[in-house]
Write a structure and sequence with these properties.
The protein has 298 residues and is α/β, with parallel strands linked by helices. It is 46% helix and 17% strand. α2 links the parallel β2 and β3. The longest helix is centred in the C-terminal third of the chain and has 19 residues.
Length: 298
């Protein structure tokens, strides 16, 4: 194997000391051999970095190359991801949060799927599990994987319409991407702080088709300590989602299509809701898109 086969696995950490060893051990168990391991830490205030460096002393030789990247202040998810990718040397990149777990054959499956289908981006099924007791969250897993099955049955044109109109969570922890494609699309949009996956996939779908693999490759941890469970953080996420939608989706909607006109109406109601919180805005925001999805036609 040479650099053409090198896969850069980038572990994104921030105060990940409780779970990061499980993530690293899952990388060590990979059936694929030629892996570069990069740990990109966003100024953790716990001992995440010390744990990672200590683990690398004992296990670093398993990888073709290792690197630990740190910074002096917390900069957000997007900047942390971009730092990790910038330091990578592989032809393929795979980002994973410092609390998720890769299936043992994750990299091998993605690599084989990419070459078998001449694909530059792979999205696969996911298994969600509880951070407390390790039990599988069947409801969450099935909901995520239904989207994969649905998306894989769409034409490229229809998939683009679906993503622009509804921007669903598309199992982003499973993304496996050609580094050249990542760079050609500009990488993670640094205009945003917390949401890295949505702008990226909206840019990628303009460049190439996405290959879907209906097989779980990542165990996605859901736990109460996650920053996404914080109400103040959720408000920031909501605001950032609206700005992403305004930048990437609204320009793609057609004002000659009733579905798109209604989606524009929902967008402005939702934007107002963040400020006013009126009952009407809440009702439209909660039920408008659900109504459209139920009766959705292209």
């Amino acid at each position: 194997m040479d650099n053409e086969d090198l896969v850069s696995v980038i572990v994104i950490t921030y105060n990940s000391s409780r779970y990061v060893l499980q993530t690293l051990e899952s990388l060590k168990r990979q059936t694929y051999v030629n892996i570069e391991l990069i740990i990109s830490d966003d100024s953790s205030v716990d001992n995440t970095v010390d744990i990672c460096r200590s683990w690398l002393v004992d296990n670093g030789r398993r990888f073709s190359r290792v690197d630990v990247i740190t910074c002096d202040k917390n900069t957000g998810i997007v900047a942390n991801c971009n730092r990790g990718v910038a330091a990578s040397k592989g032809k393929w990149i795979k980002l994973i949060a410092g609390d998720d777990i890769l299936f043992d054959n994750c990299i091998e499956k993605n690599y084989d799927c990419a070459y078998r289908n001449n694909a530059k981006m792979i999205v696969s099924a996911i298994t969600a599990f509880s951070g407390c007791d390790g039990s599988v969250d069947l409801h969450f897993s099935e909901a995520c994987n239904r989207r994969i099955i649905y998306a894989s049955g769409l034409s490229a044109k229809s998939f683009k319409k679906w993503m622009v109109r509804f921007t669903p969570f598309l199992n982003s922890p499973t993304f496996f991407i050609s580094k050249s494609l990542f760079l050609n699309t500009g990488g993670y949009d640094s205009e945003f702080i917390w949401i890295e996956d949505l702008p990226l996939i909206l840019q990628i779908m303009r460049e190439t088709d996405i290959c879907f693999m209906n097989e779980p490759t990542v165990r996605y941890r859901v736990h109460e300590n996650s920053v996404t469970r914080n109400n103040e953080f959720n408000y920031k996420i909501e605001d950032e989602c609206l700005r992403i939608y305004e930048k990437y989706c609204l320009p793609e909607l057609s004002m000659f299509n009733l579905t798109d006109i209604y989606l524009c109406f929902l967008f402005y109601i939702k934007k107002r809701y963040l400020i006013s919180g009126s009952p009407l805005c809440k009702f439209v925001n909660a039920y408008g898109r659900s109504f459209l999805r139920h009766f959705y036609v292209f």
